[in-house]
Amino acid sequence: MKRSFYLKSTDIEVAKELYKSALDKILLDRTEVIETKDAYNRVLSQAVYAKRSVPFYPSAAMDGIAIYSKLTIEANEHKPLLLNNNDYIEVDTGDPILEPYDAVIMVEDCIESEKGIQIIKSVVPWENVRPIGEDIVEGELLFPMEHVLRPMDISVLMATNLLSIEVYKQVSVAIIPTGTEIRSAYDKVETGDIVESNSYLFMGLSKEAFANPTTLDIIPDNYDLLKETIQKASRLYDVVLVNAGSSAGREDFTASVISDLGEVIVHGLAIKPGKPAILGIVNNVPIIGIPGYPVSAHIVFEEFVTPLLLRMNHRPKMIQKTINATSTRRIVSSLKSKEYIRVKLGYIDDKYVATPLARGAGMMMSVVKSDGYALIDKNSEGIEANNEMTVWLNKPLEIIQNTIMAIGSHDVIMDVLNNLFEQSKVNYHISSVHVGSYAGLLALKRRESHIAMTHLLDSTGTYNTEVIKQLFSDESMVLIKGVKRIQGLIVQPGNPLNILTIQDSVNHRFVNRQRGAGTRVLLDFWLKQFNINPELINGYDKELSTHLAVAAAVQSGIADCGLGVYSAAKIMGCDFIPLGEEDYDFICRKEFLENDMMKQFLISLKSDSFKQICTQLGGYNTSYSGEVYLYERSV
């Protein structure tokens, strides 16, 4: 079977209009009658009218006695009226009031005596009586067409004898994972296998759009089998999603299959990531080919599938919440495509700042950690630092406004502190971006973060104090002691290469940290001490952004060793050669100490829970955690 090349890269708004126009000709409303008790959150396909009045008989509005009102005309305070037992009957709220009775006297207005019940005021006809239809009259319009049924609505329908109701059918969605190398998350996987996880993303997003999704068996890269599966699914489901196989590779058959069975409306979008998407129709059923890379898959689903499912389910189109935020860095963009850049957002000095995250289309965790997508329009070369851009939110603004933006060096204690925040009863959060100590301090200097994490060694052998004096001489700053931690060489389990010193690393594959990282500064300090030329280190220029990434590279055999902290080595099951202790601290502006979020940060940092977890992780000294040192401006 010949491969399918892109037809063209279609502008996303043009693609939406083309697909909408094609679907307008085929989409039909499907309805069903279901029991009212099961109709919560369903959409009415026609107007509904009451089948019975509420109440459907005159009923007591109060506890008391039912009486014929004319008998009470002469009752007053000066001359109480003694009632005969045949004059009334006792009633409770809701009891029917039938002839000859036409009023209710509240129990509070009935005076009991040895002779019987006395009353001291008269009542008028139908006083304290609910007439037929007081709440709802038979034949009254209850709810219009397209109404979404709420719990209170179900109660009204049941009360008016509407025990079944006609609603729009919920859209059924077939999810077809494809790829010879794809394996179920429940299967044993080997090198070269890819765990199928996108279907779980699609299942959740489909349910959020009120659809009923079903994931079918994984289809290997076989043209005939894929064709048979899509053909069958298009007859059984309302929407079919084919995941992967939408690009132009040798085994990307989806576009050709859809073309053979029906029609390809669009193949290829002018967006990045998400270009290799397919919008098609088979047997009058929408068929959407979604790229396999997770980030691309997420964007294509949100831009095309979610609106389609909401439309078919007669739900209002979701208004995507966007804000304007200032970019902390220059973002270079392609002129050919609209780009979606994952960003972390901070609310600093009453404005939003956005820090770009990794841009790889396969890095789904960057979406999880992000606060939204920065949208860079087609025909734009990008965004300059300090310029505003539109950000498509994937978190509520309230959360972003109540989050400490922490930028700087990486350590797993940031995850520990974040978890402690989430476990506390206060509604605050921590969001950390790991760019290295010096880059974090520069971000703080530019007022792009609340705090910076740093462990910079200066020429005198002390940590973090000199850089504060140099970078922030014109401001009053605070150094908050974090932890003392052990730095050393992370080596493979069992240390088969017998790497014991920095000098030993010269002869082996090394993995380094990014420029500006405190760990890299420490490495350079030691290399200089031992008179080792960095060019002799095999892998000195191979950069990773976290201690855990270094440990993972060593554990997997990509590298023989790397410099990092003990806790990362322990987590990844690596051996560790300790080389020295360093200070991992936090820097913020003096005025931020008065912020309630920062007060909670200090509480968490000083807590027994934090210290206990650090002890369990190993390699940390928390004796000074939470101590505060003030550095007043010098000019």
Descriptive report:
The chain has 635 residues and is of the alpha/beta class. The protein has five domains: 12-28 and 171-312, MoaB/Mog-like domain (Molybdenum Cofactor Biosythetic Enzyme, Chain A, 3-Layer(aba) Sandwich), CATH 3.40.980; 32-50 and 145-168, Molybdopterin biosynthesis moea protein, domain 2 (Alpha-Beta Complex); 59-130, Molybdopterin biosynthesis moeA protein, domain 3 (Beta Complex); 320-395, Beta-clip; 434-631, D-Maltodextrin-Binding Protein, domain 2 (3-Layer(aba) Sandwich). 25% of the residues lie in helices and 28% in strands. It has 16 helices and 38 strands. The strands form ten sheets. Strands 29, 30, 31, 32, 33, 34, 35, 36, 37 and 38 form a ten-stranded mixed beta sheet that branches. Strands 16-13-17-21-20-18 form a six-stranded mixed beta sheet, sandwiched between helices. Strand 8 and strand 9 form a beta hairpin. The longest helix is centred in the middle third of the chain and has 19 residues, at 294-312. It is extended and about 115 Å long. The N and C termini lie far apart (74 Å). The mean pLDDT is 91.
Key terms for this structure?
single chain, 635 residues, alpha/beta, Molybdenum Cofactor Biosythetic Enzyme, Chain A, Molybdopterin biosynthesis moea protein, domain 2, Molybdopterin biosynthesis moeA protein, domain 3, 5 domains, ten-stranded mixed beta sheet, six-stranded mixed beta sheet, 16 helices, extended
Give the strand content: 25-35%
CATH class of the largest domain: Alpha Beta
CATH architecture of the largest domain: 3-Layer(aba) Sandwich
Q: What is the total tally of β strands?
A: 38
Integer average pLDDT: 91
CATH fold category name of the largest domain: D-Maltodextrin-Binding Protein, domain 2
